[in-house]
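User: Here's a structure from my thesis project, written as structure tokens. My advisor, Dr. K., wants to see whether a designed sequence matches the one we expressed. Can you design one independently, without my sequence as a hint?
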């Protein structure tokens, strides 16, 4: 009987905690980049925890500038060594895993990189023509590329 009461109390507390989190959930901050090589190809990555080819990116701390976070993510994920220009395309809202999310999307031109030899997160790095993306490119990647499309059509630095 005591075990059953304890069990109910623990699971009741967990349910209450989850309910409170749902309504007071924190905002997640993120960045994504559309890295373009000098030849105009987009650099995409595959991740160990997600399906398909994706734009590099990730989270950033509130104290970190979005552009600095984006450059850090590119160094970590694709081995960014140099670039010619960066343009903030847009901010956007998203809801990953029921969190409130705010993201910044950048186009970065003239990217040169050396893929990391080993990573727990990134399983592959490759270049693709923007009009010939792999079939397993997820909807979020296509959505972000559509948001960046006006910048991708422009020539020169952003």
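Assistant: Designed independently from the structure alone:
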């Amino acid at each position: 009987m005591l075990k059953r009461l304890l069990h109910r109390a623990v699971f009741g507390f967990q349910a209450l905690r989850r309910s409170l989190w749902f309504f007071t959930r924190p905002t997640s901050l993120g960045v994504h980049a559309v890295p373009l090589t000098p030849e105009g190809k987009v650099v995409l990555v595959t991740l160990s925890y997600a399906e398909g080819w994706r734009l590099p990116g990730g989270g950033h701390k509130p104290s970190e500038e979005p552009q600095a976070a984006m450059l850090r993510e590119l160094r970590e994920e694709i081995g960014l060594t140099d670039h010619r220009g960066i343009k903030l395309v847009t901010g956007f809202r998203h809801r990953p895993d029921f969190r409130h999310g705010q993201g910044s999307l950048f186009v970065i031109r003239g990217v040169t990189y050396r893929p990391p030899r080993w990573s727990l997160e990134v399983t592959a790095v490759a270049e693709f023509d923007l009009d010939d993306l792999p079939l397993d490119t997820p909807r979020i990647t296509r959505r972000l590329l559509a948001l960046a499309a006006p910048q991708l059509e422009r020539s020169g630095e952003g």
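When you compare it with your expressed construct, this may help: The chain has a mean pLDDT of 83.
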